[in-house]
């Protein structure tokens, strides 16, 4: 198993990456999306504040040295809004004074460039756990078992081969504990802002997930409400 999957606990994490080095930003975002995270990318501080004003993020990854409104300013703005979003600052400065200064701005963590992607994932997961109550590492309902630490899913002992989005949707449904989850909530928790709310992407993903889970059906459509997992 890829060690990155062992690091990633698959908590349906939503991340904002604000980094003016576009290649780095896009590479990080693509890697996180492969781990079933929902990731939005911006390349300057002004755009970061705009996104933070309309979307809920578990973690914001902010480059301190962005032109215009810096990562420091965005970090201060988040603190002033009393948002639950956790902040991970990125910088090329490796000195102790720089790290202390960054944390003094209200950041929750600090990572020096260049960094290992595995370490970034581990830090994001640690920060995302602070935004809500801790979840058990293994979720189980009606014979469906999801091991978030090992990135495995099974039903009645049969291992399932799920795409990242199918895994994320199943995770959200299991976390709901049998309660109805709307298509809008699934879109919010398992996709990024580029997902078109007027497409049938949620319906199609649920359809393929339902097929892979097999019979008898365990995911039920609740008309005009959403989806529910249970017998």
From TrEMBL:
Keywords: DNA-binding, Phosphoprotein. One of its GO terms (cellular component) is protein-DNA complex. Residues 136-231 bind DNA. GO terms for molecular function: phosphorelay response regulator activity; transcription cis-regulatory region binding. Residues 14-128 form the Response regulatory domain. GO terms for biological process: regulation of DNA-templated transcription. The modification 4-aspartylphosphate is found at residue 63. Pfam families: Response_reg, Trans_reg_C. The keyword Phosphoprotein applies. Residues 136-231 form the OmpR/PhoB-type domain. The keyword Metal-binding does not apply. InterPro entries: CheY-like_superfamily, OmpR/PhoB-type_DNA-bd, Sig_transdc_resp-reg_receiver, WalR-like, WH-like_DNA-bd_sf. This is DNA-binding response regulator, OmpR family, contains REC and winged-helix (WHTH) domain. It comes from Paractinoplanes atraurantiacus.
